[in-house]
Design goal:
The chain contains 4 helices and 2 strands; from the N terminus they run βααααβ. α1 runs antiparallel to α2. The two termini are 32 Å apart. Keywords: Membrane, Transmembrane, Transmembrane helix.
């Protein structure tokens, strides 16, 4: 019985874990919109969007930076925008989908 050798991956996806965590939080966010816990959602999403944007910068995938920077600005907890209503509720899963697309696509070639 011989073991099959695995070929190592040629790419490294550093933004995948932050993107998956942010997407999970954003899918739960509409249930927390009117509570004090939404401040925690804002912190988590803004920080993870900044981390993913940094990984996009390192990977030289510039087109993700404006998308993630927009999420950082709109979900910032320091100077929050007074958004509410169905548009803000719909923005949560839209941002989650953006994270789910960006996470796997932001990648760098392993040396």
């Amino acid at each position: 019985m011989t073991k099959k050798q695995r070929t190592p991956s040629t790419y490294q996806r550093n933004a995948l874990a932050p993107a998956l965590i942010a997407a999970a939080v954003l899918f739960l966010a509409p249930t927390l919109l009117e509570s004090d816990w939404f401040t925690v959602v804002r912190f988590v999403v803004a920080i993870l969007a900044a981390i993913a944007a940094w990984f996009a910068f390192q990977a030289r995938q510039w087109w993700w930076i404006p998308v993630l920077a927009t999420i950082v600005v709109l979900w910032n907890p320091i100077f929050p925008f007074p958004f509410s209503g169905p548009v803000w509720s719909a923005a949560q899963p839209v941002a989650a989908v953006a994270f789910l697309i960006a996470g796997p696509l932001i990648k760098v070639r392993r040396p």
